[in-house]
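Why CRE-UTX-1 protein? Reviewers of the renewal asked for a concrete example.
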Amino acid sequence: MCYMEIEDYDRCLNMFNLALNDIEETKFMPRLIIKYNIALSHENSDELETAEEEYNVLLKDTPCDSNSYLFQIENYQTSHGKNLEAAISDLLLKLTAACHRQLGWIEYRRTYKDEEKRDEHLKKAQDQLTHANVIDSRDGQNYYYLGRVYGEQDVTNGQVASVSTHEGTSRGRKFGIVPNFYSGIKVNLIRHIRNAHEAFVNYRHSIDKREQNADTWCSIGALYQKQNQPMDALQAFICAIELNPKLTSAWTDLGELYEKNEQFQDALDCFKNAMKHDPVCPEPLKARIQFLEKELSMPIPTRPANQAPPFEKNIPCLKEAYEQPIPLELRNRQDAAYMKQFLNFQEREYLYDHAFWNLWVEFRTMEEDQPEEVYWDTPEPRPMEDLEIQVLELLRANEPALVKAEREVLECLETSEAVFKRNICEYFISDATREMPRVTEIMIQNLRDHGHLLESPRCYPYDFLPRVAFQNLPESFSLLSELYVSLDISAQEIMQMVSKRAILNNTYQPIFDDYAKLPVPPKEPKKVIATEEDVKTALERNERHPLLLKTPVLTIDNRKEAGSLELQRYLDNCTVACIRGLTGCLRLDLSLFSTKAVMETDGNQEIEVRTQYHIPPETNCDHASQPTWKCISEPTYTTVAKYAQYQSESFKHTLRNEAEKIKKHGGAGGRGPSPKRMKMSKQSHAPTPPKELKSIKFGTNIDLSDDTKWGKQINELSKLPAFCRLIAGSNMLSHLGHQILGMNTVQLFMKVPGCRTLAHQDGNHMATVNINIGPGDCEWFAVPYDYWGKMERLCEKNGIDYLKGSFWPILDNLLEEGIPVHRFTQKAGDMVYVNGGSIHWVQATGWCNNISWNVAPMNNNQLTMSIFSYEYNKLRLFKSQVPMQLLCWQLAKNVKFTNQLIYNNCKGVLIRSLAFCKMVHDFCVGHKKVIKTHARSPGEQSHFCMTCEVEVFSILFIKDISGKFHVFCVYCAKSQGLDDFIALQQFPFNDLVSIYEGMKFIPAVINNNNKQNFTA
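Here is what the prediction returned.
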C-alpha cells in the first residue's frame, strides 16, 4: 500500500503478488482485496488491458453479481454450507461495485485513445458505472466518474447542437425545411441540457459522499464554464486548488477561464502554476505561456480620451478569488454534509477507511477489551547469577577484541540484564537468549588473562552457546553472511554438516550466519578533500573549485602502451579516465559505427528513443524551467532509419541557423568566448535553464549483439587490449556463459546536441568502456564510488528512487554538499574508462554516436563491489543484471587463481552457495518433493524468481501460470505451497563438488613479460 501511495507500481505489484501467493491468510487484507489492488495497480500504471482482465476475473471469483446480489449471496451460503457475516457480505458488495466502477473508468479512459469509437466507449462506461451504482449507491467516487461520463457526452452533443444552430440560420429558411430542422435542434438541445443536468447531479452526490476531493470540484468548475457561468466556475476551481494546490487540470482550466474573460495576466499566472506540477501535456501549455508573455510584454497602445474601455472585468482577479465562497446551490448541501460528519464523529461512528488504522484499532482494543478474569502469562524475570554478572563485566572490558562467538555471549547477558531491569519487554526475547551460556571457571580465568574465553578463540565448540533450533531453511540467504568455517573446508564436509540440519538438528553446526546483516551504502570518506575555507579561498582567488577533480587524460602512442599491465593497474585505481589515441594506434575502423553504416546494416531495427529537453549540462529543470534533479526523459520507440533521418535534419537545421547568424553579423559570425571569459565561467554558478525549452530526441540502447548482422563491428572491437575487450580472460563477464544485453554485448547510442545519459551506476557496479565515434564531443561527469551512499541520500531528499529513478544532479548542489566531481570532455575517438561503482552522467555537445559495454576486471575490489551490489539490490527489490552465484562458479571452473584476495572472496561465495543448495535439496526431500535433473543448456540465460526477482541457482521451482512456465525461488515456492511446483536441478551435486574441489590457489610466478595470463 505504501508503494502504491508513492506510485512505485513495480514494487507494489511485487509485494501484492507475494501476499496473494502466500499459503497463509492475513487479517490485514483479504485475498479478494489483494486481487483488487493488483488490478488497480495495473490500471494506474496504464496497463488497461491487463487491469480489465483482472477485474473480470475478480468479478467471477466474488459470490455476487450485480443483477441479483441477494440471490447470489443466498446461493453462495447454500453451496458453502455457512452464513456470511454482515461485514463480509458488505465487503463483497463494495468490491463488486468497485470492480464495475473501475471497468467503467477504463472504458472512459479509452475515449482519449480511440476517437473513432468514442461514443461506444462512453456508452460502455455509462453502463458499467450505472451498474455499480445499483449495487452500492454509497460510493462517492462512482458518482464522480458518472459525472465525467455525462460531461463528455455533453461535449460531443453540444458540438453537434452548435453546428446545427449555425446552419439553421443560413440555410433553413431558404429551402423551406425550418420545422423539421428546428425539431432536430430541439432534440439536441434537450439532450444537451439533460446530460449537463445528469453530470451536475452526480457531482453533487459525489460531494455529499466525499466532499474533500479536488477532482470533483475541478469537474464542477469545467461544467459551470461550459454552461457559461464564469463566477460559479471560478469558485469551484478555487475549491479544487485549495484542496490540492498541485492539481494541474484545475490551474489549466482556471487559466482558460481567465483567458476567455480577457484577464490575461491572471491566465498567465494560472498556466505557470500548472507548469510547476508536472502536467500531462506540457507542450501546449508552454506555447500558451510564451504567447501570453510575448503579448503582455508589448507596450499597450493609448486609448483615445473619448473611447470607453473595450470590456469590464467579469470575475475577480486571482488574488481576490480565494475570498469567494463555494457556489450557492452547493453551499447548503456542503454544510449539511459537514454537520452529518461532525455528529457521526461525536457518536464515535466515524470510521477511517484505512487498513493501517483498522489494524491499529484491533491491536489497541485487544488490550482494552480484555476481560477482568483473564490475565496475561507474564513470568517474573529471573535475577542474574553472580557468575553471569562477572562474565558480563569482563566481556564489556574486552569488547573491542571479542570474536563473534564471544559477542553473542555478551549479547545474551546484556539481554538478560535488560529484562531483569525491566528496560525491554520480555515477550520479544527468544528462549535461546534467556539461556545462560555454558561458561566455566577456567573460561573466566582465560578471560582475565588473555581477554578471551578460550586460549584459541577461533575454535569455540557450538554447544558452548545457547541452543538454537534451526529451521529447514535459513531465514534468508546472503552472499555477505559471515562464515563460521574455514576456507579450507572440503565439499564433502559441507555436505555432511548441512545434512545434520534436517536430521539431527541439535548437533548441527552452522556453516554461515542465518541472519546476515543488511547491506548499508558506504559512508563518505572521513578524509575531506576540501574544507569550506579551501573552497572560499579558491573562489576568492578565482581559481578552480577544489571539489572539481582533475580527470586523468592518458595519451597512448603505440600498441605496446595500449596493452601494458601498467595501464590496466592505473585504471583500476582511478574513478574515471579518458584514454586518447588508443583507437588510432590500434587502427580501429570507427566508421563501422557511424549513422550511415548502421543504417545500411539494419535500418529497420527497433530502438528506444528518449524525449528530453536541451538544457545546459551543469543544471536540470522541469517543464516550468524550475531547477530539479528529476530529469524528464520520456521513452518511445522508432527504427534506426527514422532516427538517422531526425539526426541528419537536426544537423542541417542548425547549419542553416548558423549561416543566417553569420550573414546577420556581416560574415564575421558571433563573438566566441575568450580564454579569460571561459576561465571565469568555470567559477560562476551554473547557468539558469532557458525559459523556452527545446525538445530533443535521444536514440539509446541500440543492441549490436547479433553476430550475423553486426559481425564486422564486433570483430573490429577484438583489436582492443584485454583490459577493455568485450571477450577476454581477464574480464569476469566473459566467463559467465551467456549474454547480458548491454553488459557483455555492445550497445550503440545515437545523439544530437543536448542528449543525456542520466546519472547511474552500471549493473552490479561493473566497470564501463565508452568510445565516442564522433564527429561531435560529449561532456562527462563522474563521482567516486565512496560517495554513492551520500548521492543516494540526496536523491531521497529530492524525491527520487536512486536505483530506478531518472535524475540529473545539479552541479552546484553536489559541490555545496562536499561531493567531489570529475568533469571533462570526450572528443571523437576518445575512450572513457569508468571504474567499477562510479556514478556518472553524460551529455552530448555535438552530433555523435557512442558505443559502450561493461567489463569486470579480475580483481578483488571489483568482485567485492559486485557482490555487495547484488545483495543491496535484493534488499531494495531491484533485479540484479549479473547472477553473481553463477559467475563465481564459472570463475572457479575456468580461472587459475593467483591472487589470494579474489580467491578467498570467490571461495566464500562457493561455500555459501553449495551449503544453501544442499539445504534446499534436503528441504524438498523432507517435504517429499521429487527433484528432477534438468541439465543447463549452452548459452541458457540465468534464472530469476518471478516474484522477488532474486537469482535462482541450480535448483529451480517451476510453475505453470496461464500456459507459461515461470521460475520461482525456494522461499516464494514455500510460501505458495510446493504441490503446484516442479523442482528441477540444473547442476548435479557431483558437478558442483568437482568444481569446488578443483578450485585452487596458485601463487603468482614473477614474470618480467608484460603479456597477460588467463589467471586472476
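The chain has five domains: 139-210, 229-298+312-349, 386-468, 484-517+883-1016, 532-669+698-871. This is the kind of structural detail the renewal will allow us to pursue systematically.
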